[in-house]
Amino acid sequence: MKIKYKLLIGFLGIALSVQIVSIVAYRKNRVIHYEVMQMYQSSVNEVEYTSEMLIALQSSQTGCQELIEEKFRGIHRPLKKKDAESSIQKAEEHIRKNLDAFENYLALGSKATEAAIQMAASAEDDEKKKNETKKLEDWIKKIRKDFGLYKQMVFQFMALVSINLDGADDFWEQKLEPHFNTVLLPTIRSYRADSKAELADEIKKIERCVINADRTIFISGIVVFLSAAILGFFISAAISRPLAELTNKAAKIGSGDLDIRIDYKSSNEIGMLAERMNDMAANLNKTTTSLQEAKEAAETANRAKSDFLANMSHEIRTPLNHIMGFTELVAYKKFGELNQTQEDYLNEVLGSSKHLLSLINDILDIAKAESGKPRLELGDTNIKKLLEKSVVMVKEKAIKHGIQLTTETEELPEVIKADERKLKQIMYNLLSNSMKFTPDGGKVSLSARICYLAENQKTPENDNSTDSQVEVSIADTGIGLAKENLERIFRPFEQVMGVAISDSEGTGLGLSLAKKFVELHGGRIWAESEGEGKGSVFRFVIPIRS
């Protein structure tokens, strides 16, 4: 199965588990919340209606007192009899109105209690709630009974007020007020107290419902987390294990073990990747083998060429030395006088022979370096004198072409361990190169100083040396170098020539040979230039050996 389908199934499983847990929790909390809120509303209504009943009842009792007072005022103040009768009528209407209001609130309270009884009956396992609602029902019956008696007394009292004020006053003190204070009012207050207790109980239930909802949400979160963790574990195991194997095998392939293969068979993307990596390793192995064979063949041919040139040193130089020797004897008039034409021709032959010998020497030196024959012949070398003598070798040419030649050496060690002959060859090649590519009237500057080797510049060749090294720089105002040629000029047989010196002679081996000799000393060489026509600087450093 493809990885994307595994991930899709995993995410769908997590989503489904979340949905199931959410639905179950929602349905359960919804039912509990509905029942609790219904009971709570019933309790609130009971308390509210009871409070209204008390207000109506007390207002009715107050109306009875006002009725006696107005009747008394009408008897003892004949002039205000008419006003008293109007007040008596209003008081009676006020009493009847409050009695009706009490009956209405009593009816509403009865309905709320009946609703609570019905909900308590549906809760089969809540015996406490059934007992509480049954008690409220008994209070309602008692209030209805006591209020009926109270209402009869009120109407009897109002009748007595109109015919016998003294009898009404006695009735008030002996029957109506005691019944109100000792029977009806305590009953209503007891009913209200039980309703408040029921309301407090419903509030506690709401609090428990909220706690249960939080607990359900928490448990749901744990269930979802565990489901996601389990699914994630299996998905991770299905992906990470083969990926870890791929990573380890890829690291081994990257380190060069191209014979290793990834043993993972699957039709998913990881299996396809393993198969491609195996194909890649096989192709790399074939390519590497072919390249190695080609490299070995090329190295064998190169060594054969280098060995041939190195071994042919005597055979090549001997005839040329004979030519030069006999030519010098004739040119120096050892065998008689020469005319001007003969002398010119012989000088040309002699100059060409010397140039050819120089080229042969360069080729033989390169051949020896490539064949591994050159070795350092270390000895005490006075570096300052060596640099001064190197300048003398090109001084005649500098004077001839009007080139200003300057030397600047800072405090250098008096003696260093180096191969003096190879250092002379390095200096001659670099100075000759600068002279060759500097136009007449230009400037060539030689400078040398002590510098220190950074830790990241150490190589196996210079690791046994000290951190100090000699830096030599040859700067010129010649044709300059493009950025892409700064490294190419150190390759064998490479030349970068400007228009002004297009007829210059050379094999392109001088800088390559200087580079090999510098590296043989454990140093390095490089070129710097700001661009064509802006001159060049050649620098090399060699360690100061102890």
Automatic annotation (TrEMBL):
Chief place of localization: membrane
Coiled-coil ranges per UniProt: 277-311
Gene3D superfamilies, per the entry: 1.10.287.130, 6.10.340.10, Histidine kinase-like ATPase, C-terminal domain
Residues of the HAMP domain: 237-289
Gene Ontology cellular component terms for the protein in this record: plasma membrane
Keyword RNA-binding tagged: no
Histidine kinase domain location: 311-546
Catalytic activity: ATP + protein L-histidine = ADP + protein N-phospho-L-histidine
Family annotation (CDD domains): HAMP (cd06225), HATPase_EvgS-ArcB-TorS-like (cd16922), HisKA (cd00082)
Keyword Amino-acid biosynthesis: no
InterPro entries with a match to the protein in the record: HAMP_dom, HATPase_C_sf, HATPase_dom, His_kinase_dom, HisK_dim/P_dom, HisK_dim/P_sf, HlyB_4HB_MCP, Sig_transdc_His_kin-like_C
Keywords noted in UniProt: ATP-binding, Cell membrane, Coiled coil, Kinase, Membrane, Nucleotide-binding, Phosphoprotein, Transferase, Transmembrane, Transmembrane helix, Two-component regulatory system
An MF annotation (GO) of this entry: ATP binding
Annotated protein name in UniProt: histidine kinase
Source organism of the structure: Desulfonema magnum
